[in-house]
Amino acid sequence: MSDTIKVFSDGADQLTFRNALPSAASVTGRLNDVSADVLQRNLATLMKQVETLFASGSEHLEAFALKEVKVSVGVTGSGEFSLLGLTKASAELKSTFEITFIPKQK
User: Is the pLDDT of residue 4 over 80?
Assistant: First the structure.
């Protein structure tokens, strides 16, 4: 049996909406037991994607260097990770944290 980590989410699939906003009665949080192995795999995938994105993007900088990148990350009750943005279409509440990427010394 693998270890699990508790992740807080709201179960957006069960939300009811009124005038484009979720009704207060339907926004109730719950803890989900998510496999640590699933979280580890999904986080590693996201981090590799972010690394590739910014590594290829920083190659086009001529006058500046990329010192660090901070991203806000959300994790759902099923263990999926995503970058958080203002245009995120999902209303699902996620456990969130910030990751700071700093280039390795060469």
Answer: yes
Residue 23: half-sphere exposure toward Cβ, Cα within 13 Å: 7
Rg (CA), the chain: 17
| Rounded Cα gap, residues 29 and 13, in angstroms | 12
Give the long-range contacts of residues 51-54, CB within 8 A, separation 24 or more: 51/101, 54/101
pLDDT in tens, 72-92: 888 888 888 888 765 444 555
Structure tokens at 90: 């999902």
Residue 69 phi/psi, 5-degree rounding, is: -130, 130
d(CA 22, CA 91): 8
